[in-house]
Amino acid sequence: QVRLVESGGGTVQTGGSLRLSCAASERTFNMYMLGWFRQAPGKEREFVGSLSRTGGVPYYAEFVKGRFTLSRDNARNAMFLQMNSLQPEDTGVYYCAATWTTDTSTVSSAAGEYDYWGQGTQVTVSS
User: Fold this and answer.
1) Whose CA is closest to 39, among 83, 87, 108, 95?
2) In the chain, N or C: fewer CB atoms in 10 Å?
3) Contacting residues for 57 by C-beta, under 8 A, at least 6 apart
4) DSSP symbols for 24-88
5) Distance of alpha carbon 119 from alpha carbon 5, whole angstroms
6) Which residues of the chain have pLDDT under 70?
7) Residue 55's pLDDT is what?
8) CA-CA distance, 4 to 111, in Å (whole number)?
9) CB count, 10 Å around CB of 46?
10) pLDDT given for residue 57 in this prediction
11) Do the Cβ atoms of 86 and 17 come closer than 8 Å?
């Protein structure tokens, strides 16, 4: 059982930046594919980005458009989401997710592929 805890959310103005962190309780963290999702008020949860076990080339949602950078540090059991040029439409609760896999290169945008989820951290971008 993996416990995921997000942090780093907050309120910023349009154009600002935030760095989200996801800390995992699992010592075999390097065996997990990771992802970030977000949910805006009144909307369904949507994919933000995914990282393979080795943290190779990240897979991003189209709306990221070079503004966000996903990374992981397996030695620290942590994943990070650097968000720049934030816009009001980026407002929402951001969730990290993980799933155990034997494939070192797989990434996924499907929420159903992830078995473990954090409680989320609120990001608010004011105009």
Assistant:
1) 95
2) N
3) none
4) E--TTGGGEEEEEEEE-TTS--EEEEEE-TT--S-EE-GGGTTSEEEEEEGGGTEEEEEE-S--G
5) 7
6) none
7) 87
8) 15
9) 14
10) 87
11) yes
